[in-house]
Design a protein that fits this description.
Order of helices and strands: HHEHEEEHEEHHHHHHH
Shape: globular
Number of strands: 6
Radius of gyration: 23 Å
Distance between the termini: 38 Å
Helix content: 40-55%
């Protein structure tokens, strides 16, 4: 019965998406490869400011706008770029003196600083995220590879410090952790298994956002997601601190598991 219901829901979903695509009047911004050879770098700050620091004026507002976006952070810029490539007339407004949000840079004493981003994953090969960035930037954003041990978790200070490197690649990092915590092999494997399953469920999240609301409600009511995803498992329903404490009582390993919480701006207990 559950299998039949799943087939019916998938058929309805694909039918709706097909009809939506068939009736869509806007061009698909991802239909063609938008990448072009890299253009020369612009080091002249005045030329850069002419693009990034455009003061607001009523005279600059174009007519017949399709959308007005508030905030020029990475989310706003991405949305605006995709809409523009789809043939929409978009106005972006920013309260700061330049565009970019946490991606913008500033000059102080002849040195250039960035204000937020320090590393981004999944840009070393043609992942979905890299493809999106390539399309909206026309391939002009270049990426420098991280060091093999790109980060470190340090517990304690000076001579009493215990240092645990973080390596690129989940398998390599898991191997390092097993070597440092040989008695915690099961906890480490469980932790990485949860991460893998949770990452896979992000595709389900994206699909639900694309479907009409009535279909989403039908899917949620059917409880079929309980069977085919981990959206209702502890890795989604518990805070990360509670989850990690359930895996191991080793305080150092708990800290290593949770070390990057600052990247997400939320305490592990939240």
């Amino acid at each position: 019965m559950w299998f039949l219901l799943l087939v019916i829901l998938l058929f309805i979903s694909f039918a709706v998406l097909y009809l939506w695509k068939k009736d869509a009047k806007a061009p698909n911004p991802f239909r063609n490869d938008a990448r072009v050879p890299r253009k020369p770098y612009i080091h002249d700050q005045k030329k850069r400011d002419a693009v990034l620091k455009q003061g607001f004026s009523k005279d600059k507002i174009p007519a017949n706008l399709d959308a007005i976006l508030i905030g020029s952070g990475i989310g706003g810029l991405t949305t605006a770029a995709i809409m523009a490539k789809a043939g929409k007339r978009v106005l972006m407004l920013e309260q700061h003196d330049q565009a970019g949000g946490c991606c913008h840079t500033f000059i102080d004493k002849n040195y250039e600083f960035d204000v937020g981003i320090h590393y981004i994953g999944e840009m070393g090969c043609q992942t979905l995220n890299k493809t999106i960035v390539d399309q909206i930037s026309e391939g002009q954003v270049e990426w420098a590879p991280l060091d093999h041990e790109f980060d470190v978790c340090q517990i304690g200070y000076e001579k009493e410090a215990r240092v645990y490197p973080v390596s690129t690649g989940t398998q390599e990092w898991m191997k390092q952790l097993k070597k440092r915590f040989p008695e915690e092999t099961k906890a480490i494997e469980k932790y990485f298994s949860m991460m893998k399953k949770t990452k896979a469920s992000t595709t389900i999240h994206g699909a639900l956002k694309l479907l009409p609301l009535w279909i989403v409600k039908l899917i949620l009511t059917s409880r079929i997601l309980h069977l085919i995803t981990n959206l209702y498992k502890p890795e989604y329903t518990q805070c990360v601190l509670e989850l990690v404490k359930g895996l191991t009582s080793n305080k150092d390993l708990q800290t290593v598991f949770l070390y990057s919480w600052g990247d997400y701006g939320t305490q592990p207990s939240k």
